[in-house]
Amino acid sequence: MNNNRTSRFMPLLVALGIVAGIAVGTxxxxxxxxxxxxxxxxxxxxxxxxxxxxxxxxxxxxLNKLIEESLPEILKKLDPHSVYIPAKEVETSMQDLRxxxxxxxxxxxxxxxxxxxxxxxxxxxxxxAGVQAGDxxxxxxxxxxxxKKVNNDETxxxxxxxxxxxxxxxxxxxxxxxxxxxxxxxxxxxxxxIDAVYMIDKTTxxxxxxxxxxxxYAEFLAAxxxxxxxGLKNLIIDLRGNLGGYMxxxxxxxxxxxxxxxxxxxxxxxxxxxxxxTSDGNGAYQTMPxxxxxxxxxxxxxxxxxxxxxxNDRGMVIGRRTFGKGxxxxxxxxxxxxxxxxxxxxxxxxxxxxxxxxxxxxxxxxYQQDLITRAEHGEYFSSDSxxxxxxxxxxxxxxxxxxxxxxIPDVFIARDTTGMxxxxxxxxxxxxxxxxxxxxxxxxREKLNECESLSDLVKYIEKQNVVESFVLFASQNGLKRRxxxxxxxxxxxxxxxxxxxxxxxxGVAAATHYANDTDPAVIKALELFRNNQSFxxxxxxxxxxxxxxxxxxxxxxxxxxxxxIPHSSxxxxxxxxx
Length: 578
Hints:
Oligomer: single chain
Structural class: alpha+beta
Number of strands: 21
Number of domains: 5
Shape: globular
Helix content: 25-40%
Largest sheet: 6 strands, antiparallel
CATH superfamily of the largest domain: 2-enoyl-CoA Hydratase, Chain A, domain 1
């Protein structure tokens, strides 16, 4: 009887089960699938649009080109740092991060429609092939390459190439009549993320990091090993102009200076749970006096390192407010070799602040104008002009720091604009200073190469009256002579001309060494080390004094209310009028 009844209702039970399953499935789909259905519908709409355009538009349309041009515009609606990189630009965009690129390994400039070799990169293919600084490239792979068709992009295209391939260069060299033909096998050219390492004095080392890539941490350890052998006691890390890169090397470097279990940075996003990066206590420089130099261009990984040091009160941050990039991107590669860098999370410094400056999705122009806006507000010249827009946070010892717009340094260094007049700006922006540096180097190459030290090189250059020679060169190239402005900006011309010449002769490390001798931020760091002030001090808490009003004799005319003074017992006492 019971079995028959069960059999009779079985179809109904199955039907109810199916309905319930559909209902439950619909519930979970609607509540836990996020916007998946909307994305599918939107994707269908985009695909339909492309199909309709391809099928019915009045003119023939290159859909691939249309898609390539549309992707960046779509990403602009998200945030300023989510970007699409076409396949042909991926290698160039990644070379600083990967620590190398495939090419021949030269630094060049184009002067008078000819490619001139400024420097041969140490360890690159051109060095072993015998290319020299000062060589003129007049042909590439048997084709004459001089004249108006010569430009930077085309030159890079012809000289770069797949590792193992060969490029044939026709070169003219000073003192030789015939064209010299050199075959170079393209290979990996090292790209150094640390371009200057030296001892400023007997105890202070200097390291400049220009980006954070695959090789940065290894380069940093090698740099410190070199400085240690020369008596390192204090360290300056220069992050000025460093736009950032990978987060990992910034975390690794911070770890070298922090005791165990100190938070370095953490990240989190809508689909990315909080991930913390803490010090392991194995750092070799946990007590070394430290100064970090930053400016308005220091961004991303630079801010992670500076923020970790500042929030943990481990050293002094010196310079100007940093850029303010607190968004983390992940690379996503497409089958055609192109790449998407999509913002996945935000990063936060140990105190909990996100340094990302405000932005309006789609308003890229306003975001890019921020640095100019800072200049207009006078922020580069006075710390009082810095207007923090974020929430107050506190470092480990209680110092106040701010989020929402970069790192405000512990010690502010104003930009020096003395002598920065219109004549100098035009000379600088036109590229004439760099051109003249090359011309001077090329003309005096034999004598310059005889200089055995940086000081010898500087002495030789200073004897050549380079400012006057430059002014004559500039006037011949369309920059009208203005004697008053030239005198006013004389020290700037000396500094930039000598730096350019030293860079062409001895490289960026020697040029940085020369520039640092008069650099206010470097000088300030040395002062802090000398005065044992490189470790932040906890703010002094204000002591609240309790004033207890006590009644004084009402008829005593010698008593004044202003005579109530704090007493050691925190009681107010009456004092007679004097």
